[in-house]
């Protein structure tokens, strides 16, 4: 396989590298009992923004064993879909509830401790707890692979390297308060993630980032006639947030595969001035590839060229291989023939 390919398949995007038939993995120990909680805090735009601001200054620096994410929106399920903006905190601590409460008392009392109701359970039970399955579901229900309800969503993403100013958060939360179908997920980084360098694995957004931002808007099958309206709203919100997040490039999370950033072009076979065929796919894909992978993009291209030079495994945002000078491959079918870009990949 080679070192570059083994590196590439551990985070270089799905559907790109081939079929992996077996993995040998090293498990990490977890305690017999862990602590989990979900708590919703409604309020005014300003009060919710202040809570999120405090979260930004606390969550990335909690002990490695403590994860607390924040969901912000005007129609969160934990608020019973009632009107008004709120923030939901979801916490998992690898240890007993008493220790979790002690840490929150010292680090994040603003979350509100009187009704937090942390629950102790096994780690696998915590997977059920956070899965979104109905109340009372069992561990065995995790094996149910049938999609019982058809919903749709559009997602985009960012990474944050320093806390946003309170006035920026207020403007963002105020926009969210106007669209109850939209929400953001703030995933804390820091901890052990901050000890993984950007080039250690293809996914580069660990060290130096304090949290990710996932922008989402959801709708049901009955509402699918309004999908363009919903997606346009999310794109406008994402554009507005561009003033508050790192740029050059503005980074993104590969597992959301945001086609707004661009798609592969497998049909461009124009020769260069020497009559040889250059690598237009590689350069076109850089517009989104560097947003997902930063400086790891070129190494991923080399790995792709090694393991799949004929581009058998491909999709709209798979890593393209280099082609040998003067050799044109046959054009794969099933991929959009156009490269789309919103022009914001390298905005200043």
UniProtKB/TrEMBL annotation:
Keyword Transferase: no
Coiled coil: none
Keywords: FAD, Flavoprotein
Segments of this protein annotated with the region Disordered: 321-348
Matching Pfam families: BBE
Name recorded for this polypeptide: Berberine/berberine-like domain-containing protein
Residue intervals of the Berberine/berberine-like domain: 252-320
Record bears the keyword Flavoprotein: yes
Gene3D superfamilies the record matches: 3.30.465.10, 3.40.462.20
Native species: Panicum hallii var. hallii
A single GO molecular function term of this UniProt record: flavin adenine dinucleotide binding
């Amino acid at each position: 396989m080679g070192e570059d390919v083994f590196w590439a398949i551990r985070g270089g995007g799905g559907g790109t590298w081939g079929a992996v038939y077996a993995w040998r993995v090293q498990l990490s120990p977890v305690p017999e009992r862990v602590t989990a909680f979900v708590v919703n805090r409604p309020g005014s735009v300003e009060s919710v923004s202040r809570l999120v601001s405090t979260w930004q200054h606390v969550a990335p620096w909690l002990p490695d064993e403590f994860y607390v994410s924040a969901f912000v929106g005007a129609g969160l399920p934990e608020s019973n879909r009632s009107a008004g903006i709120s923030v939901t905190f979801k916490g998992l601590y690898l240890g007993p509830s008493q220790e979790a409460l002690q840490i929150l008392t010292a680090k994040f009392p603003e979350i509100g401790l009187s009704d937090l109701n942390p629950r102790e359970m096994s780690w696998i039970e915590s997977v059920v707890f956070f899965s979104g399955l109905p109340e009372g579901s069992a561990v065995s229900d995790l094996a149910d692979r049938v999609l019982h309800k058809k919903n749709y969503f559009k997602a985009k993403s960012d990474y944050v390297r320093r806390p946003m100013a309170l006035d920026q958060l207020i403007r963002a939360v105020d926009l969210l308060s106007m669209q109850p179908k939209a929400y953001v997920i703030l995933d804390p980084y820091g901890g052990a993630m901050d000890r993984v360098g950007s080039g250690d694995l293809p996914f580069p957004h660990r060290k130096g980032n304090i949290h990710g931002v996932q922008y989402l808007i959801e709708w049901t099958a009955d509402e699918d006639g309004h999908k363009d309206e919903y997606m346009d709203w999310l794109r406008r919100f994402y554009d507005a947030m561009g003033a508050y997040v790192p740029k050059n490039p503005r980074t993104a999370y590969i597992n959301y595969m945001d086609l707004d950033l661009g798609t592969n072009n497998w049909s461009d076979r124009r020769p260069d001035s020497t009559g040889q065929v250059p690598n237009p796919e590689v350069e076109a894909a850089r517009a989104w590839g560097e947003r997902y992978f930063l400086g790891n993009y070129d190494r991923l291209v080399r790995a792709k060229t090694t393991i799949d030079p004929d581009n058998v495994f491909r999709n709209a945002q798979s890593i393209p291989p280099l082609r040998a000078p003067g050799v044109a491959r046959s054009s794969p079918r099933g991929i959009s023939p156009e490269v789309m870009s919103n022009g914001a990949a390298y905005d200043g």
